[in-house]
């Protein structure tokens, strides 16, 4: 009875939506108030695609008439959580179509619908261009957000294109993996005191040994930040069982010590990692991601593949050589951490999770763009050098440095780069400037995009008395455009 919306963990409202679609006559129209997940959740994708796909091959008209997305804010439904999102969903029957769909997102009152800047007019081609795999609704707050984002999608491919199930296209040969589930795999986890009582002994770099086995630190999302695998330790909160762990943020002084490592909550035996997944380093990113946080997409190189499910990993596709992963991993990492990539990501996040289906539909730079030469050096080599400098700040990532070719004449890995917050800011801003250019974003749009990160602006105001990150990126955009990748901006 419900072929499109009854899969997985069923939310009861979805069955009423599908039943309404079945009951309406072909030329009729339906109006419903539903959770916003009907337009964004993976489980609703098959149904929502029937509303946003062209009803005929020769047209861009579709059944969706309107989608008005609201944040509850305790205004509309006082007994429902303030952050709950719902929408007014209006669609036609099987033969009723509309040239454009009127859409608005993050509305807080009905009056906002009178503001023409809040109303977007999207056709079937727009939905499929921005979310080609699922056809889900993008979450554009303004018409300018829509213009910038759709322009990017017209120029750049998505990371994994699944429009044709028989011919999946990947920009880079990657696979998405979650290694250890924090609940289902908890029997494999060992605390610090358990390691000692079970006969393990520390051997440095946050690792323990017993016989031939090693125990590796179990990384979780809160432990990383951009190019930083030492952002925070995990501390146990014995007073609050609902939130059993906290983030013990590390200081610049601690990270200036190359032998300082964050303390995890658990360790796992290396023998519990599948043989096919063993790696000395890998890209990891935070699963918990909100469009209202300081930053939404946060990725880093981690010194182990022992990671909880809230730190998904971007692994090389099976059969991909180690050499190939070494070449493209720094490029992909820099792409993921760029402000412009984060801006587009924010148009996709409806909940608090960076699901794989969201990541796969995000636009990345074409590989051939990285091969362009600037002052005799390829953009790819410049990015690799910057990512190495930003990432290799501790001894536990010596394998990454070795793979990047950072060795002396004897073939020994050179010492880690000294953690320098000011130097790191300049390097990251230069990379951000480069990616704005690679995505074809002009200075005016870049300034607008950077203003969509108000928490970053406030943090800069508190630390520097100005939005320094924005000023540096805009200045480096001019330098990069002129082919200058070495000058350090000074105001």
What does the model show?
It contains 16 helices and 19 strands. By secondary structure, the chain is an alpha+beta fold. Strands 1-3-2-4-5 form a five-stranded mixed beta sheet. α13 crosses α16 (468-481).
Helix/strand layout:
Blueprint: H1 12-23, E1 29-35, H2 37-40, H3 45-52, E2 64-71, E3 85-92, E4 101-107, E5 120-122, H4 124-130, H5 143-155, E6 160-161, E7 169-170, E8 174-177, H6 192-197, E9 201-204, E10 207-210, E11 213-217, E12 232-236, E13 245-249, H7 252-255, E14 267-269, E15 282-285, E16 299-302, E17 313-316, H8 322-337, H9 339-346, H10 356-360, E18 373-374, E19 377-378, H11 379-391, H12 398-403, H13 421-438, H14 443-450, H15 454-464, H16 468-481
Parallel strand pairs: 2-4
Antiparallel strand pairs: 1-3, 2-3, 4-5, 6-7, 8-17, 9-10, 10-11, 11-14, 12-13, 15-16, 15-17, 18-19
Helix pairs in contact: 8-11, 13-16
Estimate the mean pLDDT confidence.
93
Derived from helix and strand composition plus strand pairing, the structural class reads alpha+beta
The count of helical stretches stands at 16
User: Can you count the beta strands?
Assistant: 19
Percent in strands: 15-25%
Q: Strand order within the widest sheet?
A: 1-3-2-4-5
Regions with pLDDT < 50 over 5+ consecutive residues?
none
Please tell me what the overall shape is.
globular
Residues in helices, as a percent range: 25-40%
| Major sheet details | 5 strands, mixed
Spatial gap, N to C terminus: 66 Å
Gyration radius over CA: 24 Å
């Amino acid at each position: 009875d419900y072929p499109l919306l009854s899969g997985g963990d069923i939310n009861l409202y979805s069955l009423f939506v599908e039943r309404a679609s079945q009951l309406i006559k072909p030329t009729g129209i339906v109006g419903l108030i539903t959770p916003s997940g009907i337009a964004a959740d993976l489980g609703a994708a098959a149904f929502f695609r029937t509303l946003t796909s062209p009803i005929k091959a020769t047209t861009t008209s579709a059944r969706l008439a309107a989608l008005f997305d609201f944040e509850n804010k305790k205004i509309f439904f006082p007994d429902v959580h303030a952050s709950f999102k719902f929408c007014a969903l209006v669609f036609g029957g099987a033969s009723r179509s509309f040239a454009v769909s009127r859409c608005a997102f993050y509305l807080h009152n009905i009056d906002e619908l009178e503001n023409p800047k809040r109303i977007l007019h999207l056709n079937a081609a727009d939905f499929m261009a921005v979310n080609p795999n699922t056809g889900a609704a993008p979450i554009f707050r303004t018409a300018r957000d829509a213009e910038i984002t759709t322009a990017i999608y017209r120029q750049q491919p998505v990371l994994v294109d699944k429009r044709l199930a028989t011919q999946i296209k990947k920009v880079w040969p990657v696979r998405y993996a979650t290694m250890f589930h924090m609940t289902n795999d908890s029997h494999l986890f060992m605390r610090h005191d358990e390691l000692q009582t079970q006969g393990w002994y520390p051997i440095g770099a946050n690792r323990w040994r017993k016989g031939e086995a090693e125990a590796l630190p179990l990384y979780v999302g809160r432990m990383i930040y951009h190019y930083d695998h030492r952002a925070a330790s995990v501390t146990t909160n014995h007073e609050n069982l609902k939130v059993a762990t906290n983030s013990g943020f590390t200081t610049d002084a601690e990270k200036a010590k190359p032998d300082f490592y964050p303390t995890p909550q658990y360790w796992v035996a290396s023998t519990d990692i599948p043989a096919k997944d063993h790696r000395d380093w890998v890209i990891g990113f935070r699963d918990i991601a909100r469009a209202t946080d300081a930053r939404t997409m946060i990725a880093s190189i981690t010194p182990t593949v022992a990671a909880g499910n809230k730190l998904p990993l971007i692994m090389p596709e099976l059969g991909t050589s180690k050499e190939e992963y070494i070449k493209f991993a720094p490029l992909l990492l820099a792409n993921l951490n760029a402000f412009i990539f984060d801006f587009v990501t924010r148009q996709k996040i409806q909940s608090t999770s960076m699901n794989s289906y969201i990541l796969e539909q995000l636009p990345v730079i074409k590989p051939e763009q990285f091969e362009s030469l600037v002052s005799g050096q390829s953009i790819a080599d410049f990015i690799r050098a910057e990512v190495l400098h930003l990432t290799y700040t501790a001894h536990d990532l010596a394998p990454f440095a070795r793979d990047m070719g950072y060795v002396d004449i004897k073939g020994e890995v050179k010492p880690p780069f000294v953690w320098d917050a000011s130097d790191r800011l300049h390097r990251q801003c230069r990379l951000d400037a480069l990616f704005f250019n690679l995505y074809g974003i002009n200075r005016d749009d870049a300034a607008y995009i950077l203003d969509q990160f108000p928490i970053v602006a406030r943090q800069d105001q508190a630390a520097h008395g100005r939005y320094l990150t924005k000023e540096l990126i805009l200045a480096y955009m001019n330098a990069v455009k002129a082919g200058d990748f070495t000058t350090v901006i000074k105001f």
